[in-house]
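Figure S4 source data
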Amino acid sequence: MTSNDATSTTHSPLYANLLAETAKIGWSELERFFARGMLLRVARDLDLVSVAEAIASDDTAQVTQWLSSGLVERVQAEAAADFAARDPDLWAVVVSPWVCVQERS
C-alpha cells in the first residue's frame, strides 16, 4: 500500500448507486413522506450519501450514534413548517422505507 492508497477515498458500489439516485427536490414533493413519518433530516455536517449507505447496510451502531447526537432525525413539524415557508434547496435520496433529506446552502 502506498501513501496515496491510504489517503484516497474509495466508495462502495452501494455508495455509487445511492449517489446516482440523489437529487435536488422541492419540499412540496417531500410533504407526503413527512406526513407518513418516513422523512429523515440529515445534518449539513454529514455526507448525505454516507448516511443513506449506513442505513441501507443496516449499520446500526453508526446510525444509532447519529440519531443519539441529533445529526440524523425524523423531520419534526417545526422543521416541516420552516421548509414549507422557505422552500430551501433540499437534496434527497431514498433508502426504503426512508427518504433522507439534507438542506444545502
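Figure S5 source data
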Amino acid sequence: MTTNEDYKPRFSFEISEEQQRRCNIILGTYGLKKSIFGPILDDLLNLIEVHGNIVIGVILDGAIKPREIMPILNKAERKANGS
C-alpha cells in the first residue's frame, strides 16, 4: 500500500462509444457515477464471495441479467415499477 495521502484507488475498464455517450447523458452530474457504481460493485463482490464464480459464469453466459440477481439493482427496478 502506498503512503501517498492523495492516492485514491481507481477501477478502470473499456466501454463502447455508445455506453460512454449514454453514460455522459444519463449520469453526467459530477460524482454520480461514483455514487452509483460503488454500491453496485459492493453488491456484485458480495454475491461472488457468497456464491463463488457461478455468479460470474451466469452473468457472462447471459443466462440472467445482473438486475435479476443483484439485490440493489433488483430493489431499484421493483421501486421503479411501483412494486
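The mean pLDDT is 90. The first helix runs from residue 17 to 26.
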